[in-house]
Specification:
Its cofactor is Mn(2+). By secondary structure, the protein is of the alpha/beta class. It is built from 19 helices and 23 strands. The strands form 6 sheets. The protein has a 6-stranded antiparallel β-barrel with strand order 13-14-21-20-19-22, surrounded by 4 helices. The two termini are about 35 Å apart.
Length: about 600
């Protein structure tokens, strides 16, 4: 649907149909060829019809040229997949096979095994045997086995098997897509925020990515020397003037910029956005003599330092951050970028995880304030209702910069509900509604002496969403927190009263995590009180189960979540590390360690 703006092919899924290799008078193998290859074709069809890369194209799936019954065919399949660039393998079978001979032994592929639940042949026996062999050899694999017995001639994939196959495929594609790409930090540590202290070893060893760094002065150099796509810039500026509404200026009149100065700020921030895109992914349309700058940094995600040295002097990066993270710009709908405000790389990577799983724009926000029902009542006279009441309060998500504009909830589904869509489903009507719900307010001079514009909108729909935070802990390494819940629509006068207690010129989202009455999810207060940092990455939809699966592939333990236990899907070897799911995860991740070390 769109050109891949990164260097490197998208990951390919390879299907390995393994089979009982015995031949002879009873033709054991021959009798299973059609059923075994049928499973492979059904799995491939399921992936191709339901999974997409981040550019909107269906995932590519290839099937082994033959079924795999003995070591020679295993080697032939490995060679076929190597030439095709396969990063992910799914082994499928309805029967017994010689596990150690037919298994995927490549330590760099992400592995799943689907064993057919039928009585005619022991597919379950093979599945258990080969998963045990995977564990014995230190090659974790996901085991997929249907709940109910099927007839041998039933070609339909059961719903529970579909769910696991798609969770495996979606998460594996996300994990493999990051390989070989870059995180670009523009500037460095911001205002003493730990999340912006970049750790190259973590990014290299756990994600298979590299770290690229440029000083913020590079943006000024490119502006000064006119190293940008002038045609693109003029188009962007014209669109911005037409579509981006300027909001009120809350600054004291004596420090407000005049109209001419504000126009100059608009030109600056639009040019800044064009240059950051070029830094991330390059641009063949830069002026002649700028061949070095044309190549970019192959960045799948980036962060901008901003405060304070930049924003004390230059217009802030709120416009580039918000609009790059949004699912459209002057060229229409396009794949969202990931650009973290304050160069909070850990939050940026959390946004990247969720974007790759959903293909939707992401929200970057401060996890700013917990409002108890009692506090809301005292401040406004309003009694919380619905999910906000059930959660025992709400959390205010608000930050000046990088929340995608899609988060206003003005895009509509077929039933007229406010939603956030995969970028390739965002139509022109959605774009207009989102832009009309957003104003661009002069930057708060107390925070941003250099000026600029902050996006301002209110999330107006109750939408399912998932908030996550990636943290680094000394002595432990990386860990992830997950809180599924809902955005909350408050009455306008209630929202305004609470919103004005903080910065009224920034985008505002009220969030009610789904609570369980226990531990960190007793109430919304406990979620806030157990959150690991000042920022959160928020995605549309309840995607916690997918994130748990993805993190197991990356060997990142999940420390806090409210995902139902029956939805947790990790490699089968995790079951050998104890009976408690969270403890299993920690011990297994510590044992296997990062894939790229």
């Amino acid at each position: 649907m769109a050109k891949n703006r990164l260097i490197g092919e998208y990951p390919i899924i390879g299907i390995r149909p393994t089979i009982d290799g015995r031949r002879g008078y009873l033709k054991v193998r021959e009798s299973l060829e059609e059923q075994t290859m049928g499973m492979a074709k059904a799995a491939a069809k399921l992936f191709e019809e339901n999974l997409r890369y981040s550019n909107g194209e269906p995932v590519k799936v290839i099937i082994s040229d033959t079924t795999i019954g003995r070591a020679g065919e295993t080697a032939a399949c490995a060679e076929q997949f190597k030439k095709a660039g396969v990063d992910i393998t799914l082994t499928v079978t309805p029967c017994w096979c010689y596990g150690a001979e037919t298994m995927d032994m490549d330590p760099m592929t992400i592995k799943g095994v689907w064993g057919f639940n039928g009585t005619e042949r022991p597919g379950a026996v093979y599945l258990a045997s080969v998963l045990a062999t995977h564990a014995q050899k230190g090659l974790p694999a996901f085991g997929i086995y249907g709940h109910d017995v099927q007839d041998a001639d039933n070609k339909e994939i059961p719903e529970d098997v579909k769910e696991k196959l798609l969770r495996f495929g979606r998460s594996a594609v996300a994990a493999a897509t990051m390989r070989g790409k870059s995180y670009l930090q523009i500037g460095s540590i911001c205002m003493g925020i730990g999340g912006s202290i970049i750790d190259p070893a973590f990014i290299e060893e756990y994600l298979g990515m590299r770290v690229e760094s440029v000083d913020e002065v590079e943006i000024i150099r490119r502006m000064t020397e006119e190293i940008y796509d002038k045609e693109e810039y003029e188009k962007a500026l014209a669109w911005t003037k037409e579509k981006c509404k300027e909001g009120f200026d809350k600054n004291p009149s004596e420090v407000q910029k005049n109209p001419e100065q504000k126009d100059k700020d608009w030109e600056f921030v639009v040019k800044m956005m064009c240059i950051i895109k070029d830094l991330m992914n390059g641009n063949a349309n830069l002026p002649e003599g700028c061949e070095e700058e044309m190549s970019g940094h192959n960045a799948i995600a980036a962060g901008f330092q901003g405060q304070r040295q930049w924003t004390d002097f230059y217009p802030n990066c709120d416009f580039p951050e918000a609009l790059l993270n949004t699912s459209f710009d002057w060229n229409g709908a396009r794949e969202p970028y990931i650009l973290a405000t304050e160069n909070d790389v850990l939050n940026g990577l959390g946004m990247l995880f969720s974007k790759l799983l959903t293909n939707t724009a992401q929200i970057f926000a401060d996890v700013r304030t917990y409002w108890s029902p009692e506090a809301v009542k005292k401040a406004t006279g309003y009694d919380l209702e619905g999910v906000a009441k059930e959660s025992g309060g709400i959390i205010h998500l608000i930050n000046s910069g990088a929340a995608c504009l899609d988060a206003c909830g003005e895009a509509k589904d077929a039933s007229g509900n406010g939603v956030m869509k995969p970028w390739y489903d965002v139509n022109e009507e959605d774009q207009e509604a989102i832009l009309n719900a957003t104003t661009w307010n002069a930057a708060d001079n107390g925070y941003f002496r250099g000026g600029g514009y902050s996006s301002r909108f209110l999330t107006t729909a109750q939408m399912p969403c998932t908030m996550i935070r990636l943290n680094l802990v000394k002595g432990l390494g990386p860990m992830l927190q997950i809180a599924e819940g809902y955005t909350v629509k408050l009455p306008d006068e209630v929202s305004d009263t609470l919103w004005k207690r903080t910065d009224y010129t920034w985008p505002c989202t009220w969030f009610a995590p789904r609570t369980t009455g226990e531990g960190a999810f007793t109430t919304a207060y406990d979620v806030m009180n157990n959150w690991g940092a000042n920022h959160g990455a928020i995605s549309y939809g309840h995607i916690g189960a997918d994130l748990i699966t993805l993190c197991s592939m990356l060997r990142i333990p999940v420390a806090m979540h409210n995902v139902p236990e029956e939805k947790i899907f990790r490699p089968a070897a995790w079951n050998a590390f104890g009976m408690d799911k969270e403890g299993q995860d920690y011990r297994a991740c510590a044992t296997y360690g990062p894939m790229y070390r």
